[in-house]
Design a protein that fits this description.
Length: 153
């Protein structure tokens, strides 16, 4: 069989877990999310279609795809540098709570906002301050993907 190359369109199923705990953080397989109790009814679970070499997936996964072939299943560990980067504490900012109220926003932990500076998650709300984290939720984490190539074009 021929290895996948750049510009190939690849259809794949995947299960993303954290190697240290085995916790599933993402998958294309509905059976897996139901099995792990993390099913989201508003999400469509389907194979991922990627054109290799176009930056449609994280760099570590794209590199691994170039070493795979049709019908192959491989488990890949990806370091933060080849995924969502290292966590950067300078991307965590403390803001006064007042401007949120002026915009009719009642800040709550876990709320995701998209100010001009990028996507941020509220991680702490105290009397007069709100803490925003502009790091990707998976920044600083080693990710494990079990990938199965189901089609190559």
């Amino acid at each position: 069989m021929i290895l996948i190359k750049e510009k190939d369109m690849v259809k794949l199923d995947y299960i993303g877990t954290f190697p240290e705990s085995g916790e599933v953080f993402d998958t294309s397989l509905e059976t897996i999310v139901k099995e792990h109790g993390i099913h989201s009814p508003e999400r469509e679970y389907a194979p991922l279609i990627v054109t290799v070499g176009e930056g449609q997936v994280i760099p570590g996964l794209e590199k691994a795809l170039l070493q795979m072939k049709l019908d192959e299943t491989k488990t890949i560990d990806i370091s933060p540098i080849d995924a969502y980067g290292e966590r950067d504490e300078q991307r965590v900012v403390l803001l006064p709570r007042e401007p949120f109220g002026e915009r009719d926003i009642d800040p709550a932990v876990g709320m995701v906002l998209q100010p001009e500076a990028g996507i941020a998650t509220i991680t702490k709300v105290v009397d007069e301050t709100v803490t925003l984290d502009f790091n990707h939720a998976l920044a600083g984490k080693v990710l494990r993907f079990e990938v199965t190539i189901t089609a190559v074009k």
